[in-house]
Amino acid sequence: MTVAEVLEEIERDLPFYEQSGGGVTFSGGEPLFQPTFLAALLQACRSQGIHTALDTCGYASWETLNRLRQDVDLYLYDLKLIDEERHRQFTGVSNQLILENLRRLSASGHSILVRFPVIPYINDDEINLRQMVEFLSSLPQKTPVDLLPYHASALHKYHGLGVAYRLRETPAPDQERLKDIKSFFENYGFNVRIGG
Amino acid sequence: MTMTDRVARLRQQSLEAVPTFSTERAELITEFYAQNHGLISEPVRRALAFQYLLEHKSIYIGEGELIVGEKGPAPKAVPTYPELCCHSLEDLDILDSREKIPYKVSPQARKVYEERILPFWKGKSMRDVLFREMTPEWKAAYEAGIFTEFMEQRAPGHTVLDDKIYHKGMLDFIEELHRSLAGLDFYNDPQAYDKQEELRAMEIVARALIRFAERHAEKARQLATQTDDPQRKAELEQIAEICSWVPAHAPRNFWEALQYYWFVHLGVTIELNTWDSFCPGKLDHHLLPFYEKGLADGSLTRAKAEELLQCFWIKFNNQPAPPKVGVTAAESGTYTDFAQINLGGVKPDGSDGVNEVTYLLLDVIEEMRLLQPSSSIQVSKKNPDAFIQRAGRIIRTGFGQPSVFNSDLIVQELVRQGKSVSDARCGGSSGCVEVGAFGKENYNLTGYFNLPKILELTLNNGVDPRSGKQIGIQSGDPTQFKTFEELFDAFRRQMNHFIDIKVRGNQVVERLYANYMPAPFLSLLIDDCILHGKDYHNGGARYNTTYIMGVGLGTITDSLSAIKYHVFDQQNLSMRELLQLLETNFQGNERKRLMLVNRTPRYGNDDDYADSLMRMVFEAYYQAIEGRKNTKGGEYHINLLPTTVHVYFGSVTGATPDGRKAGMPLSEGISPVQGADRRGPTAVVKSAAKMYHARTGGTLLNQKFTPQLLQDEEGLTRLTHLIRTYFKLDGHHIQFNVVDAATLRAAQANPEQYRDLIVRVAGYSDYFCDLSKTLQDEIIARTEHTSF
């Protein structure tokens, strides 16, 4: 597929963007894994006046981000764990790059919405929550936070692909717990939504 | 839920009442016609018949009722119209025993029909005359299921009232027609005498309605003397006073306004069995002055207004559509009689028409949750989003009401047809989705037209494969067509041929009604019948429109797309192979069928390949019909809606090139084929908007959402955006079923547990359990959107 083809697809929904004030969201997988194509598309959208959002885990070199960041109107930035070791344990990589990129984007004045996937027993503990708040409070701008309750909809996809699904035993977080986490963030002055 | 005990009780009675076949009207009209009136004009005969009916029909005032009057002797006791359609004993047995939409026929009623009604009317009703007058070509096409005929059992009506009764009593109407009478010019106007007769007839019916109301006043007074309950006694005395005042005089307050409309409604629907019964139209606009005045002088509260409106709603629900049989029952299989209350829109000066009463009525609709009356919101760009969202909160409860119309486009449509801007702004939608200049237009829907069947005939060189008869023209051997354009040209010629036949029939039917079934009471209400001294059926209305409704747009588009794509462009199949697949109903060729289903560009996905074919079909259909002259000084226009006919038309249409098997339902309205739209509601809306809606008098788009999608405020906001965008793209109408397929399947399996499940069918809602199995399956098969 070419940039022009994707753009044509995007433009079909222009009347809806204009009505709702919405636009196009690039998500994945991880869109930053295809930085050249993404940069070209973002630029094409910018030239058409289409609002763009980038749904990313932030794991990319700053050079990559820097190349396209001016054409992104809103970052949907995943933040899972602050502790580097635990991050490595669950994702296989360090989070230093992720945190650093977020800090730099924040410092450059970009619109950011932090998205926190709440996964019971993995990142919903007091320690991680406190570290999240500390880190987010240390950023140059205050960002709103969406709590995304974990769900198992990917189970079938994993199964279909023959990949082991290792969170089989993990339940969805209960509503009470989510509300507690929401108020926890709110107590530190964050705007929080459940879902989003 | 705010419902007084009274309303709760009346509502429950209305829900529980069983539709019964009442012979009261049939007996009275037969008595009347049996009398020798000597030589009198037809308008006067019909006026005297009307007077006779209203003078002798039984008067019903139910316990606790605030709005009074029934079309039959009691709620849901449904009158018949043997002068239009005289049911046979076999019809009566079918009505009594059929599984869906039955009407209880008592042995006594059967006896009355056998001994008095049938001997008098058999072979002599309008239905008999109408079929006798049709040509063999017409009959062959009708029997093949190429088109239907609306007027074979019911009279033209399809109209809606404006605001005139809220400032004019029947006595004022009489004064007006006296002025018309005085102005007749017998020296220079050769029609002066005919006009005099029509105006005389109108005076008779106006006085008959006053007398009818007075009979209710007498009954109320009599009941007041019999009750021990002082509160009810006071109410009955007030009802008596109201019925003595309206309809003779203009209403003075909210209650009188509603009661007046109700008498008018009864008058129109007793005079003849008019399609779509009758409707007050923009009720929020009409009632606002009475509401404001009542609140200001302390004579009304919001709660009292609400209770009166609820009682008014129940009155509509008490009137199931008169019993239909044959093709009419198949094309319109429902108890609903299509009164559609309009809300919002714009005022005559073009400003925002949403007011306090709009919201009050939305509350009533939500609380009553009744099949009748139907309701719609008329959305103008000038209306606030809050209005749509309030309606959205009702839509998401899943009973299909209110439907949603593009008020600004309706004005465009009406103006394009030649109405003045202010008459257009006073118009709106009625029935399912059709538009009209309320109070000023006779707009008749005359029959559905089966577009996929035309393709079937084209692919068989004019022969109907079901009967083996050559009923169409020889449009060419399809295996010899070199290009898609040749095929489409043959399709166009075949279509024009049948439109000619349909129009020829219509011209006759219109004159039959003009000559034998004048409607002086309806004429009294619709401008400019009094001014012209002409009947509603005879061109008396200011505007006169005849519609033929195209059906199966999704199926025909996808079928043409399959032929163009697989036979001509990709050459995956030869025409001969395709014809063989259709002839054998894909027997033993499921792979080929699935290729046609899954590998064809299909309408509803914002795909120009398919959508441009939809536009070609639309244009050809429009050209075939638009602008032809009817007999009333008006013109033909098109609209696209199905009621339940897509099931009947499907049952007479063989396998189609889009992979649809023989006998299965066609697509409904302008919606995509069930399950063919795979790219979400925004793509559906984009595809549908490529049609030139402003050139129609109504199109119908159905969407099905899961309840989860609309459960929160964000869902409602998105729904609002979807509606606004469709309307910005000049879409006419959209309506929503908010129910998941699992619920519908459960209801199919255990109907007794889902008796109250209401779904959107076409331009109306119905109890799911009252629908035929095929229609239930068709609704389940509609694409269910789980995200925007």
Q: Tally the helices of chain B: what do you get?
A: 31
Strand order of the largest sheet of chain A: 1-2-3-4-5-6
Chain pair sharing the greatest interface: A-B, 7 and 12 residues
Point out poorly predicted stretches of chain A. none
- State the major sheet of chain B: 6 strands, mixed
Which class of secondary structure composition applies to the elements of chain A? alpha/beta
What's the count of strands of chain B? 18
Level-1 CATH class name of chain A: Alpha Beta
Biggest β-sheet of chain A: count, sense, barrel?
6 strands, parallel
Strand content of chain A: 5-15%
Find the CATH superfamily of chain A: Aldolase class I
Name given to the CATH architecture of chain A: Alpha-Beta Barrel
Quaternary: heterodimer
Residue share in β-strands of chain B: 5-15%
SSE order of chain A, as H and E? HHEHEHEHHEHEHHE
The DSSP helix count of chain A reads 9
* Fraction of residues in helix of chain A: 40-55%
Work out the radius of gyration of chain A.
Answer: 18 Å
Shape, principal axes of CA atoms of chain A: globular
Write the layout of secondary structure elements.
The complex is a heterodimer of chains A (196) and B (788).
Chain A: H1 3-11, H2 14-20, E1 24-26, H3 35-48, E2 52-56, H4 62-68, E3 74-78, H5 84-91, H6 96-107, E4 112-118, H7 126-137, E5 145-149, H8 155-161, H9 175-187, E6 192-194
Parallel strand pairs in A: 1-2, 2-3, 3-4, 4-5, 5-6
Helix pairs in contact in A: 1-3, 3-4
Chain B: H1 5-16, E1 20-21, H2 24-34, H3 42-56, E2 77-78, H4 89-97, H5 107-121, H6 126-133, H7 136-144, H8 170-182, H9 192-226, H10 230-245, H11 254-271, H12 283-297, H13 302-317, H14 326-331, E3 340-344, H15 356-368, E4 374-379, H16 385-395, E5 403-406, H17 407-416, H18 421-425, E6 428-430, E7 434-436, E8 441-450, H19 451-459, E9 463-464, E10 469-470, H20 484-516, H21 520-525, H22 529-532, E11 543-551, H23 553-569, H24 575-583, H25 590-598, H26 608-625, E12 635-640, H27 645-651, H28 680-689, E13 696-699, E14 702-705, H29 713-728, E15 733-738, H30 741-749, E16 758-760, E17 765-767, H31 773-781, E18 784-785
Helix pairs in contact in B: 1-13, 2-3, 2-5, 3-9, 6-20, 8-9, 9-10, 11-13, 12-15, 13-15, 15-16, 16-29, 19-20, 20-26, 23-26, 30-31
